[in-house]
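Prompt: I keep going back and forth on a fold encoding question. Comparing notes only helps if you start from a blank page. Show me how you would write down a chain together with its backbone fold. Please set it down just below, with no commentary around it:
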Amino acid sequence: MNRIMSGWVDKKTYYCLLAICYLLLATCFLNGCDSKAKQQKVKIGDKAPEFVLYDIEGSQQRLSDHGGRIVVIRFWADWCPSCKEEMPTLDRVYREKRESGLAILAINVKQPKVIAEEFAKNLKLTYPILIDEDAKVAKTYGVMGLPTTFIVDKAGIVREKILGELDEPAIRKLLGAA
């Protein structure tokens, strides 16, 4: 830090380099640092790839189990500050709209079940919390950072892909008449 202050590099450049390092670490985290990892790039308009994961209660969950509903797929981890802020907001929207056809599948990436369980318990989340410990589903969806959210329509087509934070008005706007 002394070199920064003494003029070796200015503060703006320092923070830019710090942000780049963070993004590289996040990418490495999700990809297991495997430069040969091949990821699908799920695009808007694509059929959402099927997956099977276990939730924190030990029940198997398939994306196809939620066919005919609007599905929010949220990739997250407990170390993600915006995930901690936004997951309760998603839960409020879920409680309001689940009877009218909304499903939320919150997929914890690369963390043990016990961490996801504690996180969900502390925030009193009621939607399914799925475990993707090896990040296989995250890789299939082309997730490069957390949080990443996909909105899948009733026909199973990806309608939105959102990288980063979502506040309540944005969530409600994305879900429209769900």
In short: Strands lie at 52-55, 60-62, 70-76, 102-109, 129-132, 148-152, 158-163. The chain has two domains: 2-31, 52-175. The first strand starts at residue 52 and ends at 55. The chain has six helices and seven strands.
